[in-house]
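Hi D.,

Good news: the full-assembly prediction came through. Inputs first.
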Amino acid sequence: MTEAIASVKPRRKVPVIWFVPIVAALLGIWMVVYHYMNEGPEISITFNTADGIQPGKTKIKALSIELGVVESVEMTTDLNQVLVKAKMERFATPLLMDDTQFWVVRPRIGRGGVSGLETILSGGYIQLEAGTGKIKQRSFEGLEEPPVTPAGAPGLKLILDSGRAASVAAGDPVLFRGYQVGSVETAEFHAKSKRMEYSLFIDEPYDALVNRNTRFWNTSGVTLKAGADGFDVEFGSLETILMGGVAFDLPQDESPGESVQDGARFDLFPNHDAINQKHYYNHVDYVVAFEQSVSGLKPGAAVEYRGIKVGTVQRLLITEAAEQNRGYGAPIPVLIRFEPARLGLPDTPAALAGMEKQLEGGVAHGLRANLKTANLLTGEAIIDLNFFPDAGSAELGEFAGYVVIPTVKTGIAGLEQKVGQVLKKLNELPLEPVLQDLSATLVAVRESVENINGALTSKKASAMTASVESALRKLNATLDSVAPDSPTADSLNMALRDLNQTLRNIETLTRKLSDKPNSLIFSTPAGADPVPQQGGSR
Amino acid sequence: MSYPANTAAAQGLALCHVCCHLDHVERHQCSRCGAELHLRHPDSLQRTMALLITAVILYIPANVLPIMDTVQLGGGEPSTILGGVLLLIKLDSYPVAAVIFIASVMVPIAKLLAMFYLVWSARRRNPGSPMQCTKIYRMTELVGKWSMVDVFVVSILVALIQLGGLLSILPGPAALAFAGVVVCTMLAAHGFDTRLIWDRARENND
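Then the structure:
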């Protein structure tokens, strides 16, 4: 049997309970350290107004997630702006880059609709929009208005240049065939260059639609145009009528160019037509000189070859004509520009040279320019090139350094001229001698008539009539003897009837002879008498 | 340590803490239930002290951190205990502010101070009146029942007011800390062996 030996342990000097405060203290210390370790950066943002910003309450949010809270709102040292200091969460640190944007979300009613309604009750907050920047930043400049496109959004930034302030404003849509693919970010007028500059943002994936040959035009409102080819009303969507916008597309028959980089510059064309007009690179200028009125001929008017547009009128060379001082009534020289690409020819110098050659050859064969009224309502005139075989051969002239194409007068002006010519010719006809001849002839005629009259009234003539009368009477008696009821007529009738009978007999005979030529010799055998049968014939 | 002759302790008897059976201390174990026998709670003062210190540590986050997060129409507004009291004063709700201030600030602090005083007087050479100490202890016990009022309010509000984005109340980290303070002080009060007060008084009388 073994002795039970109690194992005696010395009492712990420090009871276990002391772990509780130690753990609590450690936890507390750890919390404090953790807090300071995870303390986010402090940032400062400047705004023009502190409207809606409350220290300690206003949050800084991105994607509706709180990233920080405003700690203080004070004035900047120049007392012009508001300096908002905010404590950010640590996880928000990567969002604080040089292109990060801040703006205060307030209820807004603008061109783009109503926004920020939720802030009516909950109070405003500061929206943070992260960019793609890589440089750390802690002080920012707040935006007064929400940016049209978020910083760092995928897409393409473009700059449009315009000579006039079209009705395009920031926030307006950028349309491609009526579909919104981006928006106008800013519209600035540069006082120095006196030009409008618009910055556009094309969202991905539509940025691929933009290339070097793309042309932008202003679709704002309604365009009503009266030109040589009639009236033309053009308007975009209802939205663009109300708000304006920018549209882009490739010009007609243009192939896409190379892709463009951010910040590429484009011209803003005033309307859709304009984009199709200005893109011929190879052209040659000619002069056509008109002796008639050039009323209705405006710069930009069409130059057509048999109805196909080949160029445009540039301007009237009045100054040059005045310099040359070619006397009164000198023809009015008009500068026209030929663009072979309009005919579908390649836009190359070679095609241009070919066209020049054709023109020269054509002129020798009667190719002439003439002025045509294209629209009787508006009186717009165009220049038409056509072959006039009557015009004969001609050569190209020269005026002020330009080649001159000979002209003919046609149209109303040409008609006038021709009528004038006819009248002139009529005027020049030798009518006087003809009339004198005519009156002499008439006198002679009258004399002849008088002679005939005299002859008719003479005695010889009356005797002649008497003999004619007796001859007629004799003729009458002869005719009476053969009247229907006279004996001569009766006998004549009888004779004719007999003759008829004889002729009929001869006819039967000849038929019989032709059927049976031997019937003259053999008699025809008589057939059996027909016996009537019961029930009728079968 | 000697005990007066007219006490059970003087005769080597101790009360079992578990089943209240009077037994001989030398047995070390209760002859009825087997629990360990002690004349006094072992390390009573140390335990009380440790829990009090824990409560003090926890009292810091309980007041610094927000106890309640009122989310109103999407905008959250965390509030601390003192912040809430100040807000109520600003809103002229003095009675409510007073209730909250008493329940959440004064009572825990008073309790902590009272317990520290008791521990201190149980150890010092010449303590004050044991009667007075006992009164303080009774008051601590009485008040301690109500010290959870704050946590109670928060938990009820959190449970009742949950209207989604319109208005909802979420508990803050301070609520947990505050609950910790209350639990620690209660345990400390419970762990404090009141007999020590009288032991010390008798020693001094001897």
